[in-house]
Amino acid sequence: xxxxxxxxxxxxASAAVRRFAAATNLLVAARxxxxxxxxxxxxxxxxxxxxxxGARPAGDREPVDQLWCLGxxxxxxxxxxxxxxxxxxxxxxxxxxxxxxxxxDEDAFGPVVPVRPGVLGVPALxxxxxxxxTGRDPETDPAAExxxxxxxxxxxxSRAVARxxxxxxxxxxxxxxxxxxxxxxxxxxxxLLRDAGAEVVVYAHADETDDAVAEVLRxxxxxxxxxxxxxxxxxxxxxxxxxxxxxxxxxDDGSHVIRLLHQERPELxxxxxxxxxxxxxxxxxxxxxxxxxxxxIPVVAVNDARTxxxxxxxxxxxxxxxxxxxxxxxxxxxxxxxxxxxAHRVRPGGTAVVAGFGPVGEGVAMVLRALGFVVVVAETDPxxxxxxxxxGHVVAPLADAVRDADLVVSATGVRDTLSLEVLRATxxxxxxxxxxxxxxxxxxxxxxxxxxxxxxxxxxxxRFTFPDGHHVVVLDRGGCINVTAAEGNPVEIxxxxxxxxxxxxxxxLERGDELDRAVVPxxxxxxxxxxxxxxxxxxxxPVPPGRLxxxxxxxxxxxxxxxxxDPS
Length: 568
What we know:
Layout: H1 7-24, E1 32-36, H2 40-52, E2 56-57, E3 66-69, H3 73-83, E4 92-96, E5 113-116, E6 119-122, E7 126-133, H4 144-153, H5 156-168, E8 175-179, H6 184-195, E9 199-203, H7 211-219, E10 224-225, H8 232-243, E11 249-252, H9 256-264, E12 274-277, H10 280-292, E13 299-301, H11 306-330, E14 351-355, H12 359-370, E15 374-378, H13 382-390, E16 394-395, H14 398-401, E17 407-410, H15 420-425, E18 431-434, H16 444-449, E19 453-458, E20 461-465, E21 471-475, H17 481-484, H18 491-511, E22 519-521, H19 524-537
Helix pairs in contact: 1-2, 1-11, 2-12, 4-6, 5-6, 5-18, 5-19, 6-7, 6-18, 11-12, 11-18, 18-19
């Protein structure tokens, strides 16, 4: 068994990778990397973490996506210049991860320019080379236009699909409502649809709205029905005002707008082409409506696309949820003026409980293990529980698992997963977080009704103390932590998901009037095309069409057995 790095090195590597992700909103998994210089033990710790998260060490002659610099600038400067020699459009991110001193001399490459908060461009080397320092926090300036430009750069698959839609003229005269988390990547999707010929309107829930990004879209001429400071009643009014523009297609996240459409504006349904829904929790009520015969439009199940679930749910939500959780925990560093050293239980090598082992839970567990946690999975589906056991995780009932937990992450998308009883059973001082999520996945209202007192310890961090003194730390009141406390899933992951959304738009444009008024599967052609484009974007060679061992299409399969000799 490989030896674990010492806690100090593990904590440094964790912080470095999380700061890189916070500064760039980029993915770790599937990226080729190289580590330059530094103490061999530091190199080993960082390499183990990156590979545990799904990244791959580059071969000697292979170009890299990420160059992690640990050594002296005299050592790293030639490596940066060498790696910067690459074809136009092939981006290189150089990460200064020096543990004690800066490992990259930013002045060695000529003038640098801000690209987005925390990221510098190096035009003297190339327009495709970027510098990130993990030794300092990114600037807090929203810089929304820069963040939108940055997101667009890393979304080649969506750009290609939107370009095809535009070239075909399918979107002309079609009004598309984008009802999703309003952040840079969603802004790119809205603008791509606009550029492809659609009339685009945008809505977002108040707690999922980045006002600076909303202003970018308004400045581009898009109607935006979203503000971060509105009440629940005002939020509903904005959603209805967006629906009153009579969209032909709704792209939804959580299906709240689709359901509101049926409840409050059913007269719009007959003239609509349909909708698309990208979450597991959002599809559940829509399937119920379909079974009852009350779903008035076809809804494409974007969430069920393989290029969505296998990547967005597992790698995207896994990385962003765990990183956002630990970033919030870092705000609880002991402070002699306010907090005790036991402000929370989360420690390197501690125990993390993951409730639910669907694709999101798998990803959360994978990232937690890579960061050195012992993972315990609570899952009521026996097949998924068996999967967790085969993945090497401890499996236990939730009420038992939380008693010794340092961190508890719910990944079910089911209300009251972390019920009042579970919260009361959770170890005192444990941290509670939600991946994805629905309202009251953590039973906050029930806890307050039972006499718990919520005390703010840091932004988005509250301690819930029950009358008997028992207390747990709840992040973002049980909200979707990677959205409300961070910048959502990594850009490359949302590139895949939004490419599938665009594929769903094409389905509805071409044959929406032929589809059942039900939840309908995504066309497999969309999955294949998305995956092929993504393989090219990630630097992988082309994949031939068809599947290994597939029977030739022009020959009828022989149904006779040859096991006992040639049949007569």
